[in-house]
Amino acid sequence: MNKKGRAIPPVDLIIVIDTSPSMKDKVQVLSNAATNAIASLH
Question: Is residue 21 in some structural domain?
Fold first, then answer.
């Protein structure tokens, strides 16, 4: 429900993460950030 008491319809969310060797050090940081962002929406 939003602040006006109306139902918020569900949405599909797709997250694509580049797991190539050059991004290896960023993958865990991005994964944690995505998890936190999704949790804050719920």
Answer: yes
